[in-house]
Amino acid sequence: MPAYATVVFDISALTTIRNAVVEAYPKESFGMLYGEMKNRRFYIKHAQVMQKVDRTSNSVTPNIKAKKRIDFLMDLDKMEALGSYHSHPKTYYPYLSKTDVEEWDLFDEIIQAIVSVSPTRLNRKKWYKHDKNTFATRIVSDKRLNLKVRCYTRHIRSPCGYKMLTIGKRKTIE
User: Is residue 1 part of a domain?
Assistant: First the structure.
């Protein structure tokens, strides 16, 4: 497989992730990322919230059977399972934890998106590029929260076995 350098999110996928993370806060959220790979890019067209999960404030365990049901339906819609996302509540930076790396093989994923969720005093902002590898937004619900998203993929030449991907967004993906 060629080295992929960029993840491009459909804005509706980012909205789904944002809503799922805020709903589950202060516990972790989990979902799957679907789309396609082309031109050295992962195009995330759809984010699916996984409802059958066991969650705490520092772990989330998805239901394998439920995930297989969703994969079957998404395959009918011609969308490939590219990876998953989950949140790390009360953290300021979206990083892969030791457990995330150890459990990467659970779903045979190509990418993992991590969403950090931390309190903020600042007002709402649309998704913006925090740096080349991170999207961020500030939301106001019953709490003011700062969300940051980073994506990772496996990389055999990296000493840790994975690398951070450049990130982008589009209003819609053809």
Answer: no
Q: Which domain holds residue 50?
A: 6-138+147-170
Q: How far apart are CA 73 and CA 169, in angstroms?
A: 25
d(CA 14, CA 37): 18
Q: What is the CATH number of the domain that holds 35?
A: 3.40.140.10
In a domain, 111, yes or no: yes
Parallel, antiparallel, or unpaired for β 80-89 and 60-62?
Answer: unpaired
User: Following DSSP, what letter does each residue of 52-80 receive, concatenated?
Assistant: SEEE-SS-EEE-HHHHHHHHHHHHHTT-E
Per-residue pLDDT band for 172 (boundaries 50, 70, 90) equals: low
The structure's pTM equals 0.89
